[in-house]
Specification:
Elements: H1 7-21, E1 26-27, H2 29-36, H3 40-49, E2 56-58, E3 61-65, H4 66-75, H5 81-88
Antiparallel strand pairs: 1-3, 2-3
Helix pairs in contact: 2-3
Length: 93
């Protein structure tokens, strides 16, 4: 019986899955955008206009730190409008 994947294909697939599950500490703009669920262009706009996640430069390279992306994502939580209305009104009845 023939194997479904060669050893090389399996190694490539494993590396791709691990990269998605356990992102590395420093990411490129493409990796950071994918990690945050946005386009690289949107991440660029946030970087240029301000209000986006912290980034570092290494020469001309821009890199995002995973911990800073997580921190920025957590700080951008917004309460649903209906929940805010209930809270303002003194809770659900």
């Amino acid at each position: 019986m023939r194997a479904l994947l060669t050893d090389e294909q399996f190694a490539d697939l494993k590396a791709a899955v691990l990269a998605r599950v356990a992102p590395k500490e420093w990411m490129t703009r493409e990796e950071a955008a994918d990690y945050m669920g946005m386009s690289p262009q949107n991440l660029d706009l946030l970087r240029k206009d301000g209000g986006g996640p912290e980034f570092s430069t290494f020469g001309r390279l821009i890199r995002y730190n995973k911990a800073k992306l997580d921190q920025w994502g957590a700080s951008n939580n917004h309460e649903h409008a209906a929940a805010a209305s209930v809270a303002k009104a003194g809770g659900a009845k």
